[in-house]
Amino acid sequence: MRTKSWTKTGIKDFILSLDKYLHWYNEHRIKASLGYKSPVQYRQSLGIMN
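Request: output the structure for the sequence above.
Response:
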């Protein structure tokens, strides 16, 4: 993952970037410890989440 300088970024752009990252982190990031599923897929397979 690349780093970004946030010194000239407004709060609106920061929140948008953070939202995109959290979406990727929870819905697309594959974890070996979760059976090679994303956190959302894993929770759905357990019936914890719709």
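Residues 26 and 39 are 5 Å apart (CA to CA).
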